[in-house]
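Example 212.
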Amino acid sequence: MDTKKFDIPADKAEALVEVVRFIGGQNWSPATGGNYSLRLDNFHCLITQSSKDKRNLQTSDLMVCNFNNQALDPTLKPSAETALHTKLYQLDSEIGCVLHTHSVPATVLSRSVSEQVRIHGFEMQKALYGNTSHTETVCVSVFDNNQDIPALAKEVERKWQQGNINQPGLLVRGHGLYAWGRDVFEARRHVEGFEFLFSCLWQERLAGGMLL
Ligand SMILES: CSC[C@@H](O)[C@@H](O)C(=O)COP(=O)(O)O
Ligand SMILES: [Zn+2]
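Predicted structure in complex with MRU:
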């Protein structure tokens, strides 16, 4: 067990809390759903404790876990989905922040497709790293939900290694969005971009097709 004391950098904790409160204010993290983390180094992340109210998160609601999903302070209970965060940090050393939301559009859209959500024709696609035109097609991978989070993380690893995750986010069916970025700012832009795009797609579906 890694019980090393870790001094949490105040600026990082405050930046993470600020983005989580913003997300909570959008109603993308209701009923304690969602979890949020930030890389501290190549072995540790700062992550939300389990079952905290994300709309009014405090820096004291954060804790440090290592990439083996162990809490440095064993008296604190880390997010139930810590293993997905730590898997992403290990898959890509450039990932600096992982944000997991439970919005209505992401949840319903993920239940209406099989393996991916295809997004085409929206200017907002450019909010997602690597996308430069509405004429491209953004494919967001969808994973079946699983209460066994380490198993779900392994499935993410498998698809990642096959090259099948090429956007800064993925959906878990009937559950929500995981989005990431090199820092909190970029991860927030990705969450906002995805949530906007999912909302557009869902509203188009409700309207019975494209509104063009
Ligand atoms: C309110 S149910 C949501 C949880 O089961 C889970 O999916 C979630 O996102 C929050 O879990 P948490 O342990 O608080 O990080
Ligand atoms: Zn969740």
